Amino acid sequence: MSSANLNSYSTISISIADEIAHIQLCRPKELNSMIDAFWTELPEAVRHIDEHALVRVIVISSQGKHFSAGMDLSVFQNMGASFNGEPARRAEAFRRHVLKLQDAFNALEEARMPVLVAAQGGIIGGAVDMISACDIRYCTDDAFFCIKETEIGMTADVGTLQRLPHLIPQGLVRELAYTGRNMMSQEALSSGLVNQVYKDQETMLSEVMKIAKMIAGHSPMAVAGCKEMINYTRDHSVSDSLNYIATWQSGMLQMPDVMEAMNAGQQKRKPVFENLLSKKASS
Predict the structure, then answer these.
(1) Which Gene3D superfamilies does this UniProt record tie to the protein (predicted)?
(2) Is the pTM above the cut of 0.90?
């Protein structure tokens, strides 16, 4: 896959500038619902950006009034049509289908660079799964979040119930999941789901890009290390996590980036760091 293919997707558009990839959900008339193509295109694009070290930060936003209405009805219909055949084989095939859907958002968590999401309007169903897999979340004043799956007779299965309890109080997660109610922007802010609420999408994107540029100005090795350690400590004990960072530093902490940061500070200039190696080049 070449970089040119990043411009060929039907559900997302991608632009790259200033070491930042801006991925936009681009089906505003359909409320950016997640059709079959989306579940292939998003992880493919994110993994290509990561594997080739094209940028230092990824920002995800969407076009239109709403961030995303979640999984498209057509995906549910296709899912329903597959419920036939011998029960064990049908169940095994469906399990693989769910794992494939989960993989679309695992790509956001597994990328070496931070993923920031800027959401407006409705963040519904699968969209909550998606933003939960991102590193940092921002929203507009009119934003609302809804674990819609419960209301339509199913349990959310693409990451919301696994990641959200690490982001906001468990009691609140349970209330949102059991009731399917909307959580408005100010509640999302006070609970810690989002870092900031902005008056409109234009202001939000402008401010989030400033944050992305600040991140992109740091050593990409240091930032990648931060992401690796924060994700690791979420899933492990403090003792295991301290042992892991000690082992990580024994190999990853080298002097060029440290000296460049210190020299740049003394000389009152912006530091210049090498990008991460592409995964292909490092293999």
Answers:
(1) 2-enoyl-CoA Hydratase, Chain A, domain 1 (3.90.226.10), Lyase 2-enoyl-coa Hydratase, Chain A, domain 2 (1.10.12.10)
(2) yes
